[in-house]
Amino acid sequence: MSVIVEQLTKRFTTGGTPAVSDVSFHAPSAAITTLLGPSGAGKSTLLRLIAGLELPDSGSVRIEGVDCTHLPVQKRGIGVVFQSYALFKHMTVRQNIAFGLETRKQPRGEIEARVDEMLKLVQLEELGKRYPGQLSGGQRQRVAFARALAIRPKLLLLDEPFGALDSRVRIELREWLQSLHEQTGVTTLLVTHDQEEALEISQHVVVLSDGRVAQAGPPEEIYDRPATPFVASFVGGTSVLHGSVRSGRAEVGTLVVAAPQSAREGEAVQAFVRPHDIKIAKPAHGSNELTTGRVERLKSVGGYVKVLLKLPSGETVTVEVPRAEFDDLGVVEGDHVHADVRMAKVFLGDFAI
Ligand code: ADP
Ligand code: MG
């Protein structure tokens, strides 16, 4: 329990909606915790409150058991990396990494040794004499990590650190960050709007929506047991379908799925269906049996094919079919197909997410 945030609230305008509203969570020691949520959810504000770059209206922040709520940034023992590189352009890579150590007035020899160690850690030994302008985006971000880690922080705060990079570099750095974390073991808080990044990198996920915690837990739990309709729709590329309870089951258009036990006959439901939890099949040739829907669009993405299925109700469902399986299916746009839902998360009621 290395970072403990309790009932943190921050408003930017008096009487306005808080950017961060009564937020409490624990970020376990030596783990990567992600703060996951859509744009405007309050992730950056929360991180800035923990860093001491903003002051809360109420609530507290404890780092390693020390109440830091009113401590200045420099006294919190944190390293920060933002989306924009924020390196000093007129300083070399070495000078950038040394910066925090110099402001702490460490002996020259120790600073040089630490900079060498950091360059090695981020695999940029050869580039110490370059200026930020002579580096790629990915390399600059690695320098930013080296600079943040040089001061031996108790806590590393990362605000969408790979957000400005192209997708190939982003995925490379995602793996790099995991191995960096294995080597340093520094407690890390990572802000991201990318649910795949959150589920892949972290041991603990805090999902934020409108300045509040929607759910917190290990990634598997967030994915498999979303606590609210918001989490169910935000995590997992989910389709949302409307329907009602008939004979103890949830009927959503032409699909039928299990309903919660407390469901009453006729009650409105919303089913959240993941793209890989639906199986489609072609009806037997020449048969006129009832099908689930019509294939509106096919799109091939990497190892699988995305099928956009339109139900008679007008609602659409996205289905992902592994490529080999898709080739066997022989489905083309315009075909009418059967669809079977392997698993869906059903919430009672008719509400907006
Ligand atoms: P996220 O990082 O999740 O996209 P932010 O924390 O940046 O969200 O913003 C949350 C809310 O707070 C937004 O509505 C945003 O407009 C508002 N906000 C953030 N910073 C400021 C600020 N300095 N002044 C006024 N409003 C702000
Ligand atoms: Mg942000």
TrEMBL record:
Family annotation (InterPro entries): AAA+_ATPase, ABC_SmlMolc_Importer, ABC_transporter-like_ATP-bd, ABC_transporter-like_CS, CysA_C, Mo/tungstate-bd_C_term_dom, P-loop_NTPase
Superkingdom: Bacteria
GO MF, any single term: ATP hydrolysis activity
Gene3D superfamilies according to UniProt: 2.40.50.100, P-loop containing nucleotide triphosphate hydrolases
Swiss-Prot/TrEMBL keywords: ATP-binding, Nucleotide-binding, Transport
Gene Ontology biological process terms, A to Z: quaternary ammonium group transport
ATP-binding is among the record's keywords: yes
PROSITE patterns: ABC_TRANSPORTER_1, ABC_TRANSPORTER_2
One Pfam family this sequence matches: CysA_C_terminal
Domain ABC transporter: 3-235
Keyword Cell cycle tagged: no
SUPFAM superfamilies in UniProt: MOP-like (SSF50331), P-loop containing nucleoside triphosphate hydrolases (SSF52540)
The protein's name: Sulfate and thiosulfate import ATP-binding protein CysA
Provenance organism: Archangium gephyra
